[in-house]
Amino acid sequence: MKINANEISALIKEQIKNYKHDVDSSDVGTVISVGDGIALVYGLTQAMLGELLIFTHGIYGLVMNLEADHVGAVLLGDDSLIKEGDEVKRTKRVMEVPVGDNMLGRVVNALGQPIDGLGPIETKETRPIEVIAPGVITRKSVDTSLETGITAIDAITPIGRGQRELIIGDRQTGKTAIAIDTIINQKGKDVLCIYVAIGQKNSTVAQIVDKLKSFGAMEYTLVVSATASEPAPMLYVAPYAGVAMGEYWMHQGKDVLIVYDDLSKHAVSYRTLSLLLKRSPGREAYPGDVFYLHSRLLERACKLDKKYGGGSITALPIVETQAGDISAYIPTNVISITDGQIFLVTDLFNAGQRPAIDAGLSVSRVGGAAQTKAMKQVARSLKIDLASFEEMKSFSQFGSDLDASTLAILKHGEALLEVLKQGQYNPYPMEKEIFYLFAAKNKYLDSLKKNKIATYLAKAYEYSLSSDKSLLNSIKEKKEILPEVEKKLIAQFEKFNELYLEEYK
Question: Distance between CA atoms of 111 and 363, rounded to whole angstroms?
Fold first, then answer.
């Protein structure tokens, strides 16, 4: 066999020319210590803050500390499976969660994985949990009402789409009840809802999901659950995961309502992580950046300008106080970030005034701009009337003989409080709230017995629907009380009073 040197050299040259040397370079580190959901890793010199790391058994970690000789990562899984000397790899990507319309009606954990036993969720897109909030230019001022169905809120502290309204109060004062009622009231209003449960009991979350299902609210609601039995990193990540899922819909031009229940437990979980990572403690042992923890979360709730999609995220953060102290560290932080607060008081709750909203300390800084004209017409003097009532009430305790004007203020104030009482899971349509407040404003309730006011209003509302439904329909469609509608409503009340008033006196 004759060897052709030219042929061989041509082949070798061709192979050299086409030779590709693919080097698989992946940063690999080693666990030097692990415990309490925290792992210290040596060797990952290129790791970024907020980057995902993958440990053995497929457990993920989130880089939170960059030290000179190691990185500190919080573990998003069972730390008992990881031991000293285990290999750790960089993923070179930040933490992301799945997003999409298929998430609606489901219960997921802080990583977006389903935990409701209804099988996997088919999603094509993901979004990073940490993004910079939309800037001033991309935003639009709040101008559309988000109806909660709770008369006391829609009249005194109205909420607009794109607003951040804090719900604050002691434990067991009805904070979650307000949030759940608001979600139930969004049925048919083209608002998608996200309920983020942070540090709740498993049984509590299950009850809330059952309640939402029974009202048909799960069709447009996503529940993100990081319960008390889960490690602190999952509680820390949950609200950011929730808002990332909401931003997907906001950028499509949809309106989203997100409830964080509650941010007190979120701050505690972050304090736990920070102390374990040996960060310096500050006031109440919280780390120095605990304000930024919540500001970067709540700033992502906004109303976008039409040019940028026109969607909105309305945030209802919940904060728990101790013995009504709203001047504590976390409450003051969140109050200063949000656009107003609904303050719930134990004394009012125990006295049977539910929802137990303190009209004096509750405020909405932008909702008035989004309030419907009809609501402004009937609720304009409501806060002043309640303030006058509170003042006269404390004053009247010292004197026995009261003049007629003082008695009138007290009677009117008591009637207003009765109008603002509302049962749980019973949000009212907007026209019903207007009807009730119209009756109170025109003093049709002042001469009635206190315990008969609720039944009087219910009967009068039924009478109005049966005798001339067009009046309430006009309020519903026009969102204002036209002069001719007002005249007809007054005539309707006069007629009703002729027939039934004696029963309620």
Answer: 35
